[in-house]
Amino acid sequence: IFGTLTHDFGKAKLSVEVAWTDETFGESGAATAVTGGLEVPLWKQLWIFDGGVLGSLHVGHQSFDDATIEDYSFWDFGLTASVDMFDFDARYTDTGLDQANCGHEVCEGGFVFSATINFGG
Which of 96, 92, 38, 102 lies closest to 62, judged by CA? Predict the structure, then answer.
């Protein structure tokens, strides 16, 4: 179950997201994630980006009912630039888990780049 509340204040947009599942990975039980977000338009137009540039950040916390799984915080911040029907996003994302508690390299912070095509409708 996933729900989001947002409010656009004009100069910034705030959001709160809550996600819950009754079964995470491998029969480990229920889990809940709560995330807060902030989006701020930085430029209405910049260079070739006629759709503007947006700065954003998200901070959240993932908790598990299973006490053997460590709860953790996560965050990301980045920029989204739009031109015509394309959005380009570059951001840094990380968690509060260290390598010993994670057991995988996916918990290390890193940069993510994505491109999206928006079709009219």
Answer: 96
Cβ atoms of 6 and 13 closer than 8 Å? yes
Question: 72-83 and 86-95: which strand pairing?
Answer: antiparallel
Whether the pLDDT of residue 121 is over 60: the answer is: no
How many angstroms separate the CA atoms of 62 and 74, rounded? 8
Angstrom distances, CA of residue 52 to CA of 47, 83, 96? 9, 8, 32
> Locate tokens 């260079």: which residue?
47
pTM exceeds 0.85 for this model: no
Residue (of 98, 109, 92) closest to 58 by Cα position: 92
- Read off the pLDDT of each residue in 112-117 and give the average, rounded to a whole number: 95
In sequence order, the 6+-apart residues with CB closer than 8 A to the CB of 78 are 55, 56, 57, 89, 90, 91, 92, 112
